[in-house]
Design brief:
Helix content: 25-40%
Protein name: Retrotransposon hot spot (RHS) protein
Radius of gyration: 30 Å
Distance between the termini: 77 Å
InterPro entries: Crinkler_effector (IPR052980), RHS_C (IPR046836), RHS_N (IPR046835), Trypano_RHS (IPR006518)
Shape: globular
Organism: Trypanosoma rangeli
Pfam families: RHS_N, RHSP
Strand content: 15-25%
Structural class: alpha/beta
Length: 702
């Protein structure tokens, strides 16, 4: 018994022969455990990370073999699953070339109205005006969007092919229409610039035709819209300059459009497709290749075609499996396609419902707008009901499943990295274009919509108050649209370090009359800052009414929400305080009694028993400004418009009482925020610049 105890405590002393010691003390199971621990230390936790692991030669052969076999099995299973689930590919219809080449134009015009735009369909008409773009050394950027037109302005173009498009044949979708907005047309302008040689060569001996990589959020149309529109425009391009256009789907299927014979030929198999294109190039024919890379396809080989006279563009999602190695090897230049905006979706609704009654059109737009609020501006998930229902359930499951063990996977939100395969955050995100120095395009991963953003941030802060998602979102504030910048700045109020950073700069605006100035509420008790966000979605979504909660940052979705961009109710021993924040760049930001009245009316619609709760509630307004804004130094009054002779049933309805309450009881503060205020705790301690503010400034909006 003593000998057995001695062996267990120190086997190396009991077994003198090293071979016996290793046999008994390092069995295969233990060796695998040690290998797994070593891989974990190097950041390898999944098969996808193993696939990208660059030090496989340091792993014992037995473990390496098992992991390689498991990876191959997983890839084969995924490919087989997709092959079994995808609808059968449609046969090539007669007259397919002519159908695509002679596609019919229509367009939708936007006419300004009170809150948005009214859409008018011009069926069968090509727009007289198209969007304009400015040229740089390597790309084109839009000139101010709709601002370049006098109203009405073109919102969407539609190309209709009777025999459909290659993408739709390949996916067996019975739709003939290709939707083109300012983002899709920009892709063609860049490719056209390559064909015309308007961009100077990037280096000596660079290929005549650049390789391009188009990246967009899955489902926004980088495949269907951009791919089909590029095909149409390339077929229209001079037949002497471009002889063939090849539209590939992954490595193994391609449509070859021959502009000389005006025919379409299908080729299958990677080797067969490659051989055909090489032979065409060697015969002196010039062509352009569109490679559509859905998530289930392996990235194309670097030697798709041997000739530098041929152009190539790959259409891809941000998934690293699709694009990582090909981008590096092929030297492709990225084009980032932003998601459609609300008016783009509204224009599509107008086109689809053009032959229905006005009431049906209004109801259809209301439902699609509601879906967009739920899943983001992703047409595939908005207009296909099954896709919408599936995405809603996926989003719900993902958000409910966030905990301390997996919160680290959401570090990509607010970052610029490619999306790892089979990773849950993909369903919550969209890509937004960011322009770096020398016109290099990158994409920022942002929450797909307002409701997802609020729930995701609330969940991550619930798991850990130190989660850095807010600062990751803010580090790209220079590339964000104004409405995003405002929202993300307000979200910074959820972090105590931000509140403490701005406290020295919080100043109360001198109130009118003899009222005494006071310290701002946040200066008195910074720990009472809001701790989680809640989105106030449009009222027509028939969402249930809410109970008012303390220390919750309520963020209205609507850009027309009156008077504040966000607000929260802060509890004190003696009384309740309501604190509203308004982001502004102007030196004046007064309001009207009717605006405050509308604000109170909306709060009654959102919250249970608001009238009772609001009794005795004191208000403080914080005007948040950025460094380059004109400072607010004076009290912002509440104006009683002369013709507003409406009287209410109580003080909260009577415009005169509202104006008196504002000017006599509301407190106002002003604060200018700078990059310093957005530093995280760690950055403050180290005295570093915030991330994203490195050398040369870094980013700009596009």
């Amino acid at each position: 018994m003593c000998g057995w105890r001695c062996f267990c405590s120190s086997p190396q002393n009991t077994l003198q022969t090293r071979g016996f010691f290793e046999k008994f003390s390092i069995p295969p199971g233990y060796q695998l455990f040690e290998d797994a621990r070593m891989l974990a230390e190097k950041g390898v936790f999944s098969l996808n990370q193993w696939k990208e692991f660059g030090q496989k030669n340091t792993v014992p052969l037995r473990t390496k073999g098992r992991l390689d076999a498991a990876l191959q099995q997983a890839e084969d299973a995924e490919k087989e699953r997709w092959e079994n689930e995808k609808p059968p590919r449609q046969p090539l219809p007669e007259g397919f070339y002519e159908s695509v080449f002679n596609a019919t134009w229509s367009h939708v015009m936007g006419f300004p109205e009170d809150e948005g735009e009214d859409m008018v369909v011009r069926e069968g008409q090509r727009p007289q005006e198209l969007w304009e773009y400015t040229q740089t050394v390597r790309t084109f950027f839009s000139v101010g969007g709709d601002e370049q037109f006098r109203p009405p302005c073109p919102k969407h173009m539609i190309l209709s092919s009777e025999q459909r498009w290659p993408y739709l044949l390949n996916h067996a979708v019975p739709i003939a229409d290709c939707y083109i907005n300012i983002e899709v047309h920009r892709v063609w302008k860049i490719v056209e610039g390559d064909l015309k040689g308007v961009f100077p060569p990037s280096r000596l001996n660079a290929p005549k035709m650049r390789r391009r990589l188009l990246i967009g959020t899955p489902g926004v149309g980088e495949s269907m819209a951009a791919g089909s529109y590029l095909l149409y425009q390339l077929l229209q391009h001079g037949a002497t300059e471009l002889h063939v256009v090849v539209h590939c789907f992954g490595r193994n299927f391609a449509y070859l459009f021959n502009k000389r014979t005006r025919t379409v030929t299908i080729y299958e198999g990677e080797n067969n497709i490659g051989r055909v294109m090489v032979n065409l190039a060697r015969s002196g024919m010039k062509g352009y290749i569109i490679i559509d890379m859905a998530i289930h396809f392996r990235e194309p080989s670097n030697d798709v075609v041997l000739s530098h006279e041929w152009g190539i563009i790959m259409l891809s999602s941000p998934h690293e499996d699709n694009l990582k190695a090909w981008t590096e090897q092929a030297g492709a230049i990225k084009i980032i396609m932003n998601c459609p905006d609300e008016n783009d979706v509204k224009a599509i609704c107008a086109w689809e419902m053009r032959n229905t009654t006005e009431e049906e059109q209004v109801e259809y737009w209301r439902r699609m707008h509601m879906r967009m609020d739920d899943v983001g501006p992703i047409p595939r998930c908005i207009f296909q009901f099954n896709e919408y229902e599936d995405r809603v359930e996926e989003i719900k499951d993902i958000l409910e499943g966030i905990d301390a063990s997996n919160a680290v996977h959401y570090g990509m939100v607010g970052g610029v990295e490619e999306w790892p395969s089979n990773d849950a955050p993909h369903k919550l995100m969209k890509v937004v274009r960011a322009i770096r120095q020398r016109d290099v395009e990158e994409f920022v991963n942002l929450p797909a919509c307002f409701s997802i953003e609020s729930e995701l941030i609330a969940k991550l802060l619930e798991v850990s108050e130190e989660n850095g998602i807010i600062f990751r979102l803010l580090k790209y504030r220079r590339v964000l649209l104004p409405e995003l910048l405002e929202r993300y700045t307000l979200l910074a109020f959820l972090r105590r370090v931000f509140v403490e950073n701005i406290m020295p700069g919080l100043n109360e605006l001198p109130p009118p009359g003899s009222r005494q100035q006071q310290r701002c509420v946040q200066q008195s008790n910074p720990e009472k800052h809001p701790s989680r966000p809640v989105a106030l979605i449009a009222l027509d979504h028939t969402s249930p009414m809410l109970d008012v909660q303390y220390k919750v940052l309520y963020l209205p979705e609507s850009r027309t929400f009156p008077f504040v961009d966000g607000f929260f109710v802060r509890w004190r021993t003696a009384e309740d305080d309501g604190c509203g924040a308004r982001e502004t760049v102007r030196a004046e930001h007064g309001t009207q009694a009717s605006t405050v009245r509308r604000f109170n009316s909306l709060l009654r619609s959102y919250f249970n028993n608001w009238e009772t709760f609001a009794e005795g509630l004191s208000w403080e307004i914080i005007y948040v400004q950025h460094e380059d804004s004109t400072s607010i130094n004076a009290w912002q009054g509440c104006v009683l418009v002369v013709h507003a002779n409406v009287t209410g049933s109580n003080e909260r309805e009577d415009p005169r009482a509202i104006a008196a309450f504002w000017n006599q009881q509301v407190r106002q503060c002003e604060v200018a925020v700078s990059a310093e205020n957005f530093r995280s705790e760690r950055q403050t301690q180290r005295g570093r610049q915030p991330e994203g503010e490195g050398k040369g400034g870094g980013e700009q909006a596009a």
